What does this fold into?
Amino acid sequence: MKYVKVAKIENAIDCLNLGIDYDVFETAEDLISYLENEYEPESENQIVITDEMREELVKVFDQYPKALKDLTGQESGIVVYDAGVIVTNWAHSCIAGGLPRMAPGGIGIIAWPDEIEVVKKYSVADIREALPGGIVPGVGDNTIVAEDMEIVHDHFGDIPALWGYDIGLGACVDQEPTSGTIYELGGLDEKVIVIVPDGWV
It folds into this structure.
């Protein structure tokens, strides 16, 4: 077994702080293989990657994905912050990781360097159940309003489309409920969930 250089290492988190750009690795096993077989020690402070550390590396790598695309396997979806709703292509807006948030001044979606920690994952038959509110008819004719939620960003009108409303921005309107996967995130100052609708890119 090869050795890796580090001043002090007690767990897998320390392994990931070696200064290696591990975004280039698709799996924990790829990273471990690199550390064991290719990484060149630069000092006499060396350790062996033990079986326990190997298990922790796999756990950490899986628990903290680099980006939402890595987590979900899709390029787009919905992120809910308490009652605020953002629909975005996170493969574009958060290509290097983090969570999509509205930029100051409302100029567009930017990647905020939040760490992605999944505390719960489950499937739903209707993703509207995971949203904090709904879309209801407005006061005037042919008007709708968001009830109990704020639509912060929805470029194509995908949220109204979930309730069967076509507001002419390009969203695909399906009269049947949209199923999907829900990821509840932890370690943040607010309640955050990621909704991955089935059938979206």
